[in-house]
Amino acid sequence: MSLASAPLNTNVEVPKQKPDSPWRIAYRRFTRNRLALIGLFVLIMMFLICFIGPLFSPYNLYDYNLADKNQSPNARYWLGTDKFGRDILLRMMLAGRISLLVGVVATTIAVVIGATLGALSGFYKKSVDTITMRITDIIMALPTLPILIILGAVLSDLKVDPSHRIYFLMLIIGLLQWPYLSRLIRGQILTLREQEFMQATEALGLSDHRKIFRHLLPNTIPIIIVWATLSVAGAIITESALSFLGLGVVQPTPSWGNMISAANSLIDFRKRPWIWIPPGICILITVVAINLIGDALRDALDPKMKK
Amino acid sequence: MRQYMIRRLLQIIPTLIGISIIVFAISAMVPGDYITAQNNPNMSKEKAAQLRQIYGLDKPVVERYFVWAGNMLKGNLGDSLSHKQPVTKVMNNYVWNSFIIAFCTLVLSWLIAVFAGVFSAKFQYSLFDKIVTLLIFICMSLPSFFIGLLLIKLFALEFKMFPVGGMTTAGINAHGWAHIVDVAKHMFLPTLVLTMLSTGSLTRYFRTSMLEVIRQDYIRTARAKGLKERTVIFKHALRNALLPAITLLGFELPALFGGAIILERVFVWPGIGQVYLESINMRDYPFMLGFTIFIAVLTLLGNLLSDVLYGVADPRIRLK
Prior knowledge:
heterodimer, A: mainly alpha, MetI-like fold, B: mainly alpha, two-stranded antiparallel sheet, 2 strands, 75% helix, globular
């Protein structure tokens, strides 16, 4: 007689009842916020238009139709053309790809560095903490915009290929952003590590790596999501400001910021508003949409912060 | 308290050293220097080498850093290469132009934010509150340069209500009252944009802090005593809602003297931010480095100030 033959009734009827998980509660809170839903819709539309729209455009990024230059919006060119006869609508959609991409990737870089270092310094404390926090002190006291401008000038002087510039830009913006997240995560980890479930991981003899990445960091995900959302908005504004100064994304690669810099020429500024106003409006509505979503996420994910 | 202050001041030192190294290293990465940036075709090789020697540009980077850092400790930021004047003097010449705008912005944005915040907290979920909330989001999302350009286009070019840029009208040479009016007209648009930018987050802060206070028991007590609603809100609630905001004043410090780089360029305002941008284009290192460190010091002092003010405002959290 083996133990396996013992009758095991596994078909006990358990009343099916979905528990209210924190994520479900957060989802319900988020969808109740009408402004945020509008923001989400606008953002999704913006992504769709920018990433799919160019496929339907009859024009090409490098189409220089000098015969059609400086046309005001008409049936052929819905948003007009610039001084090289390039279609503004197409350029704006492609610029949107770049601007959104820079925002998202820069934030991803910041999140990876910020969350990891924040978790490590909160978990190990002592010298790891001291060193990391000193570094965050230094970066946070650096005047962001001036440093970005100087770095932008360095990129120009090093004759970095225009198509590679956006990668450097993402990296630079990300590297200047992570300390803010790092501080938040560290504070959170410092309280989390004293809680009972961490004693349990201690008792189970889990490795530090597992403790940090499987048990501590997942508990900070709400903070990371909220911070990352708002940070994307900030990165888009930063990128556009730099590109406007001619130090971020440079021609011929379009970005919303460098399209607005057409306003630096007096004639375009005064007589051809269709060249520089639409990209500005794109920045504005995208950033407003992201901020609305971020704020709603904050309310939905972090009940303690809701006031 | 004094011990805490001393400890905090000492902590600033390593941070500053770190900042100075980073800033210097970045500037050293730039391949060109002041001589090449001038693009002077008449510059012979010998002349260029001679000039580099005079400016100390021929020495190795590490040596240059120590010379620069050593001078800075003595309060000597060196001479600006493009202005041919000591950096401190150039800063003094332009920083006040930036300061007037920043100061007006500070006063205006705090006034607007306090009122908007208080009323939208008082009438939470009302139409007014909803409009304020949406406006806060728009203000927080404004790309400053775009709004600046848009306002110039609208109010300066189309309606001709304000001058296009600059600080004074060229050729007027006004004195006294007329001069002040002239400058005020030029100031209006840049101040408006800066105020919009900073009012958003401030209003949000006041609204949250007011909502917190308004629900407390002593406010109910004040109402129960039969005080006028105005007295309850502005005398009893507002005071306590404003206290934590004092710490925000410390953070305004770098903004007051740092200038608004992009907006000053858009509005051609002769402020320190524009000079700074030029100094980067001209590779005028002494000025560029000196001013970057200046802002960093202000940021650190601002943080310290806000921590101290925090203790002053709320004795419960006073640090030992």
